[in-house]
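[09:14] KT: can someone run the structure on this one? pasting the chain below
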Amino acid sequence: MPSTPQRRSHTGRSYRQFPTKDALATAYVQGRADAWFARMRQAAEEPATAAGKLMAVFGVLAADAGATDPNQLADELLIVLNGAYATAAVLDGATFGQRAVRLARLLIDDACPRLQAPATGSTIR
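[09:31] RB: done, structure tokens below
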């Protein structure tokens, strides 16, 4: 009786291109990271000033996070960032850096309702 050819899955072909599962996972994660950074670079290309570049990146991130008003969240995050830089230059940078992160989390939680867990209301991180 003639044998039938074995069907190979797409996954099987992917594994043959990488020596280990770790190498495959690393390549996947690296590809995702490269695409993300390319998107951020593209967003920051047009603005001429550093503040404009930050606003563009914050705007993309805020929109991706589902902010109800991405531009407002981008503005608020830039204020927090600028305040953290200014404060850290003259006071304890570590302490005020932690406070800036906490404030940014509060702003993000408020602006991005879809990041809230439905049952508890706690933020998904």
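[09:33] KT: thanks! The chain has a mean pLDDT of 80.
[09:34] RB: yep, looked fine to me
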